[in-house]
Amino acid sequence: MNLPHQSGQEILLDNVSKFYGEVLGVNKVNLSIPPGITSLVGPNGSGKTTLMNLISGLLRPTRGRLSVCGLSPKDPETYFRAVGYATQYDGFPRGLTGWQFVHSYLRLFGFSPADTERLAWEAIDRVGLREAAPRRIAGFSKGMRQRIKLAQAIAHRPKVLVLDEPLNGLDPLARAETIALFKELGSEGSHVLISSHILHEVDLISDQVIMMSQGYVVAEGQIRGVRDEISEQPMQILIRCDKPEHLAAQLFTHEQVVEAKLHADKAGLLVRTRHAESFYKLLNHIALNGVQIESVAPADDDAQSVYEYLIGTGESTK
Amino acid sequence: MNQFSTWRRQVFAIMRIDLSKTFFARRGLWIYLLALSPAVPMFAHWMIGHETDQLGVDVQIFAGIFQFFYLRIAVFFGCVGIFMNLFRGEMVDKSLHYYLLAPVRREVLLAGKFLSGLVAAISIFCGSVLVQWIGMFIHHPAPLLNSYMFGGPGMSHLVSYLAATALACVGYGSIFLAAGVLFRNPLIPAAVILVWEGLNGILPAILKKISVIYWLKSVCPISIPAPRNNGNNIFNLLIFDIDPAPAAVAIANILLLAAFVVVWSAMRARRIEISYGTE
């Protein structure tokens, strides 16, 4: 994502640092994020929320510059028409109904009353809260509060949507519907920047990931691309075949193979190799010698594995 | 849509949100109680203990309650509650970011919030003055009351009290709005201001002018006579002004002070960042 070419549609961070007094928020972040769904992954305190607050203009960088689609947060009247942000804060203005919440803040955008009403209902419909909207937010469930925040963030149709832990508290159905909405927004050419600690969901929906640790960006790009760059960590490959024991015996004689073990279902073999390309060539050769191979697939190029390799196993992610 | 029209629309939108919160919030109930607290003895006076030939005394009592309690305690703390909550209350509720994520200049946001605070404070406290006025004077015979209100100084007194109340809301409102923008715990500056305003009567002439209450006293229509046998009472310092300013100068000074504080707050509001975790 560190692209030298800039089309004016990227989120650009140029050597951005943020300190809270002596405490590091994020440090020396350089990113060029293209449109699509981008996930921000990292444990508590890694700087995800700080980065999102910087991109959404709620914080000012201590050092460096940032822009979104060519706009600067120093010009709020244009910047915040392009940016929508659903924060992780579970705070709402007191006494408002779901409808009033979305409608009231949409009025600040200067739309006509008719457009304001239409856009507010449109956003509420997109998150599936039309029936609940006339009720007070104080009586909403956690999932409903998440969705009404999302409605408020998308109501003005921003080009850049920043979502901090947007799937927290959602039941499976709402989660699936929300992910579908993210995909829809991403396919419309919007930026959708999501932080999540549920990494398999990140895998399913992200065009690219940004991995953070202790205020630094430790990896960025497409998940598989990031995995390929972790050369010191042997790649794990799952081979489905008819004779896994026989295959394992053959593979052990080759130096590319670091480890081979039977899969739990006994119908496959998990192999770890430092040289994936040459290993695939080797596998083609073995396949010609009587082993019926059904499938070959990387087993550790998901976000969870990549993150564990980068940050260290046993560290909880958020 | 031109820029001014957009700003005006945004200010009205901010006022709609904030006014409903200020007027109808359950946690703001104490402000109504505080504002109406002087009306209780006045209505009690009407119902149980009035003497119909004491209009002049009632005028003095009203003036005393207004200057000694209403301006210094009720309006002061009411403005603390209303104006400090405009920013600080939203920080506590973690809802300020909804404003900051809108395409609104911080100066416009601050203007909208200040105006909504003013509308609320003036409505509540000037409304209370009217209620108190009714409670204090309604029991007098109609001819006497008519003569006082329309043939005498009554109407001008009432207008002056309303003006002093509104100016108190403007002056204290601007200061407490600024405190809400600048301080994490604005109650500390509020306490400092309370002490400063309380000491106004014993401050040197140059220092006493750096206050709201000094100018407000000059807008009040009646000087309260000192108690005959207790001329050196410390409380006299709170009420009397040995060097009053002309009302027009007093009004101009309060408005200038408020304008200066609001503009300064608007400049500081540009630096507001959202970091609820550290609040």
Written description of the protein model:
The complex is a heterodimer of chains A (318) and B (279). Chain A has helices spanning 48-55, 76-82, 98-106, 113-126, 142-154, 172-187, 199-205, 223-229, 244-251, 276-287, 303-311; strands spanning 11-20, 23-33, 36-41, 63-68, 83-86, 160-164, 191-195, 208-213, 216-221, 235-241, 257-262, 268-273, 293-298. The two termini of chain A are 22 Å apart. Helices cover 35% and strands 26% of the residues of chain A. In chain A, helix 6 (172-187) links the parallel strand 6 and strand 7 (191-195). Chain A contains eleven helices and 13 strands. By secondary structure, chain A is an alpha/beta fold. With 279 residues, chain B is mainly α. Chain B has helices at 3-24, 29-36, 39-49, 55-93, 97-100, 106-137, 142-151, 154-182, 187-198, 205-208, 213-219, 236-239, 247-269. In chain B, helix 1 packs across helix 6 (106-137), helix 4 (55-93) runs parallel beside helix 8 (154-182) and helix 6 (106-137) packs antiparallel against helix 13 (247-269). The radius of gyration of chain B is 20 Å and the shape is globular. The two termini of chain B are 38 Å apart. The mean pLDDT of chain B is 87. At the A-B interface, helix 2 and strand 5 of A face helix 1 and helix 5 of B.
Short description:
Chain A has 318 residues and is α/β, with parallel strands linked by helices.
